[in-house]
Amino acid sequence: MTSRNVLFWDLDGTIADSGAGITASLNDVFANVGADAMTDTEIRRVIGPPLQTTMPELLLRRNLDVARSEEFIQEYRRLYIEHHLPHTPVIEGMRDVIETLSLHWHLALVTAKPQAQAEVAVRAIGMSHHMVTVVGPAADAPVHKSVLLRRALVDCERELGAAPTLEECWMIGDRNHDIEAGVQVGTKAAGVLWGFGDHEELTSAGAHAVVATPAELLSLLLPSH
């Protein structure tokens, strides 16, 4: 392994099976004001992007005041952090994949989940020791995934003592903004189909590869394995 090869990972829907906890927390928020639970389509749309971009749409569909978006986001976070975040499960098969890849690559996490929550989640799934850095936005300041990826690259250069070679790195995730970040920054980009995006979403965003299972991802990144 060289110090220049880094795999940058999304968290929710890629490594962590956090969908149930996120969905339950949002539905509890809506139930508290007598609003409908989320549909399957809404669930797929809301997990991944910053809530600041998706909450107004959810409120509008329920005839709730969009101006209260931040209030709803804060209540969601309170419920999620208290009841679900510390118990975040790992997607089946991904623990072995991460442990195997960590022997051949450096790993880093780049997520739209707020930084403090991301750090708790990575500790909860027992993967902190595998990550060179964990990068997420401030809780009240959503930013494009490409900005977070560039921040992670700076962290990796500082921690590893050498700038990663972009064309030898991968950004791996389950949504279009993960793929777009890799394309914009100059890494390769791999889409995974066990999360919340579909094949069309990932390929349209410019994915260099799309895999259906953790085993396929391992074969992509370690062809001789």
UniProtKB/TrEMBL annotation:
<dbReference type="InterPro" id="IPR036412">
    <property type="entry name" value="HAD-like_sf"/>
</dbReference>
<dbReference type="InterPro" id="IPR023214">
    <property type="entry name" value="HAD_sf"/>
</dbReference>
<dbReference type="GO" id="GO:0005829">
    <property type="term" value="C:cytosol"/>
</dbReference>
<dbReference type="InterPro" id="IPR041492">
    <property type="entry name" value="HAD_2"/>
</dbReference>
<protein>
    <submittedName>
        <fullName>Unannotated protein</fullName>
    </submittedName>
</protein>
<dbReference type="Pfam" id="PF13419">
    <property type="entry name" value="HAD_2"/>
</dbReference>
<dbReference type="InterPro" id="IPR050155">
    <property type="entry name" value="HAD-like_hydrolase_sf"/>
</dbReference>
<dbReference type="InterPro" id="IPR023198">
    <property type="entry name" value="PGP-like_dom2"/>
</dbReference>
<dbReference type="GO" id="GO:0004713">
    <property type="term" value="F:protein tyrosine kinase activity"/>
</dbReference>
